[in-house]
Task: structure prediction
Amino acid sequence: MIELKKINKVYDDGFQALKDIDLTFEEGKINVLIGPSGCGKTTTMKLLNRLTEHTDGQILIDGKDIKEINPIELRRRMGYVIQSIGLFPHMTIYDNVATVPKLLKWEKQKIKQRVEELLNMVSLPPETYMKRYPSELSGGQQQRIGVIRALAAEPSTILMDEPFSALDPISREQLQDELVRLQKEIKKTIVFVTHDMDEAIKIADQIILMKDGHVVQKGSPQELLSNPANDFVKEFIGEERLGNNQSLPPLNKLIVKDYPSIPSTLSVEEAVNKMVSNHVAGLPVVDAEGAYLGVISLYKALDHKKASLVDLVDNTVMTVQETTDSNELLSKISGEKSIIPLLSEENKLIGVVDNKKLLEALHQIYKSKSGVA
Amino acid sequence: MSFITELGQYMAENSSDLLALTIEHLLMVVYGIGLALLVGVPLGIIAAKYEKVAPFILSLTNILQLVPSLAMLAILMIYFGLGFETMVIGLFFYSLLPIVRNTYVGIREVDNSIIEAGVGVGMTSLQLLRKVQFPLSIPFLMAGLRVASVIAVAVACIGPYIGAGGLGKEIISGISLQSEVKIYAGAIPAALLAITADLILGRVEKKTKQRTV
Result:
């Protein structure tokens, strides 16, 4: 994990590039720094491998202050991919990929194995490509080499400075897809700088939107799209993308709050009565403190009238947490027959998801997208 | 027509002498340029790496180049006496500018993105120089070497004035004897030497360029 604490960067000419930046780059996630040019996104990234030094504040990598790490060592421990690719034109692909392992004085056999493995990872057969020179490869292939060169010495962190922006649109799409696929295998902490919002939305786990040396908003792509912090964020994301992402209202708008529930101390008989009088087929069961225990279904209750309520409770029913995103719920909900209780973080019952309201909200979105309404 | 046969006859009769002179000529050039490489490449690198001393180094080599060759040799003769070594030193001074300048330019011309990549992956300044900057500057250095060797072959022709040998000996004695045949017998091999050096080094230069652009 990389933490930036109260980072300021003032250049010699007095220009303050970064102002009080507090940031955390999460382990194993793709963190995208984005913003208009001059917002400080590249500067922020270059602080991490000390290509630029911060004026004050503290940067911690796994709890260690980077000012205490030798910059050369630090850089060998971090992968670095740049926009202009920067392959060494006088070296073969093999030597390019092997650059950092060679600097770290790995054994020859180990280097060879690693290079072959990496080339296979990006679908460039080693037999064909190892001996070629960068100029014999297409732009997209060159940047693939750029990416695996950064991965070669198995760094835990990879810095990527607009790596795909110089490529043609097709290669760019391909490399983005490949990065997402690769990340599932390698699970590195990636700090990715871009100015392309589509790219950010596509690949990011966390987007950090910057402007004039400040962090304006950070969060998952979904969060930014559904809840832009201010007009600048809205403008930067663009109406079109915001429109496309018209999403469901938050979960607590989609539930029946006064849905009946039943304390576990009552009898099955009473549960049946309550369901019948409320015209429902299932009831959430709670304990004396209001904590959720499970669901009792009408059919089960009618079959076992003599049993105790606690024995009949089905606690395998799907539930959702208060903090769950409505859109996420949609992907889980299909085929769910039972009622879906909504729980607070303390496991207290808040209500039950209202299928009808959910359906209506969905219709609303569908209409606006297809232009019916 | 008779002149050409006369020249051919003369050159055939004196072929072993001419060959010896040619070899001597070549040796002066090779030693001079060798020394210039030994000194000039590091100087060029220093100039490229330390921006502050660059103007100093470059103008010094420039001045050396500006001194007329005969004057330079005369001055050198005062300090080093007559002979082969003095000529080698003179050629060394003359070859310095193209070699230093081209090394300097070659290293400065390495694309910034390549430098950034090198620094970014954690190369030390020395590793960057050894693995990236210097190899990439070689085509420039070869171009400098080519220019230097052509100049050196020419300058070496005035060697006999300061007691060094070489093909100049034949030319100068031809001048004093007013013998056209002798002049040509010295000048033609010297010209061939320059052309050959230019062709060979030109080819080498081209070859080194292939990979680096």
Q: What stands out?
A: Chain B has a mean pLDDT of 90. The first helix of chain B runs from residue 2 to 13. The two ends of chain B are 50 Å apart (CA to CA).
